[in-house]
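hey m, so remember when u said the tokens were messed up on ur end? i reran from scratch. heres the input so u can diff it against urs
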Amino acid sequence: MIEVSWFSALCDDDYEFLGVPNFDLASSWEHCRDITLTADRNGFDNILLPSGYSLGIDSTAFAAGIAPHVEQISLLLAVRMGEMWLPQLARQLATIDQMLHGRLTINIISSDIPGEALESTPRYQRTLEWMQVLRQLLDGESIDFHGEFVNLELDPPRLGTVSGVCPPFYFGGFSPAAKETAAAAADVFLTWPDTVASVGDTITDMTERADRHERELKYGLRSHVIVRETEAEARAAADRLISQLDSDTGEAIRQKSLDTASVGVSRQSALRDSADDDGYAEANLWTGVGKARSGAGAAIVGDPDQVAAKLAAYQDVGVEAFILSGYPHIAECDLFAEHVLPQLDHGQLY
């Protein structure tokens, strides 16, 4: 069984044509609420609520606002480590988990705090310390921690999660420091779209790293998707998506992100460079999305059977969770739910 999640575009990342702003698709409470409720109604297991300082609306505030409105879906709330006072963050997360009746999951973000820049190694050391202390607080444990970035002695708050333990940490990052942090402290390691073989290699690498920490990881893939009744229609939809994009606009969009120099972003650029003239890195893996996006820069493109088969191929190399999105997000959510979701054996990972 796999977890199939959708994406609510809190980070100003929703378009009919990539690179062409559309006021109706801009990040707002109303629009992101509608994406989330559509995914909930369509039977998705989880939904990622991304975090970006200069992009869109706040993820934690949105999670608290939407929690009473969703019926069965989990929320994968992105939280940047170091951005908020740890004890207060723990109380907020426990409160949101209570509002969701225990369906909170946490996406750990390690990019720079706005207005501050750290090299990769100290930044991930900060992330590791925050993850360790945040887990202890949400496990209901007292804190006596003295590290490079966290110096804290504190009893846990009275309010805890529904389960009494910390929600699972989903984590993505491709530098050596990021991978070691994930191996030591994450629950689900997320990779961006890549060839099936390359994703398999990443999972093998991370499994070996986790073994050295005497831990086990689950694995997820964050990807866009374009599904239509026929492959020709899906490829035409992909071409249409970038039909009004010019290179300068695409570069400007990519540079808005705080992680533009990361190892993961570099790999997405390399994948795009390796693609054929139509932008396909391998069968049904289209890299055109990366022309106007810093992060996950490829889409699974095809008819329903092809998309389901591609997901199965990733599952065969160890992927247990998929975080998907498409443009516009509500329309593609409906299409995927109609054509592919019924074919999948899926449910919440935790």
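this time it looks ok to me. The chain is about 40% helix and 20% strand. if urs says something different then somethings off w ur setup not the seq
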